[in-house]
Description:
alpha+beta, globular
Amino acid sequence: xxxxxxxxxxxxxxxxxxxxxxxxxxxxxxxxxxxxxxxxxxxxxxxxxxxxxxxxxxxxxxxxxxxxxxxxxxxxxxxxxxxxxxxxxxxxxxxxxxxxxxxxxxxxxxxxxxxxxxxxxxxxxxxxxxxxxxxxxxxxxxxxxxxxxxxxxxxxxxxxxxxxxxxxxxxxxxxxxxxxxxxxxxxxxxxxxxxxxxxxxxxxxxxxxxxxxxxxxxxxxxxxxxxxxxx
Length: 231
């Protein structure tokens, strides 16, 4: 059964990566080729897989899901685009690979969020007194059927969760049923607007480089060539 799931999932992910390779304007092209090669045969490079719950050194965040870190912060999917988080691909079908909270905080799921939750961290572990938000998305199928844990229905606000709490499953929801994004988790560290709300995650200037939070080289300009893994 697992082999069948892999067989069904890989073509979608390869298509996504192929589009990325076509539009990439030079940032992380060497790493992108490694990602593409891995999805052609995931069993060939098991050392590139990260495990849910893993912690790299003394980094404050635990890794939220099983998978390969395909695209990282400030990658360029197409000219002018700057990726505001990291994408983690398990290589399975949608709704199979669990996602857990990377850090403790207060979970919100707005009423129109089919595939997304955000967790407020009142005290940034890297800068005391600063509030940050951890954004998780793509947790639904292409039609918008949610894979978020039933404990967090739409309208959930400020529910405390510990690091490691089950949040849902990797999905491939993009908002357009005809354009699934490939099964993965997108996660980002979002800035507070100074009034107790999160900024728009789509703008990279509203996010922090996640590298020190995970203890990994997750900045595309610092690490243009390799897939990040714990040393």
